[in-house]
Amino acid sequence: MTAMQDVYADLAVEGAEIGDLVSELSPEEWATETPAASWTVRHQVAHLAYVSRMVRLAVSDADAFEAEIAPVREDFQSGMDARLAEYLAEPLPGLLRRWAEERSAAEKRLAALERRALVPWPAAGPLPASVLAAVALTELFAHGQDIRDGLGRSRVITDRIGHIVFLGTRTRDLAYRARGLRPPAEPFRFELTAPSGELWAFGPPEAGQRITGPAQDFCLLVTRRRHRDDLALRAVGTEADQWLDIAQSYVGPPGTGRAPQ
Question: How far apart are CA 247 and CA 41, in angstroms?
Answer without folding.
Answer: 25
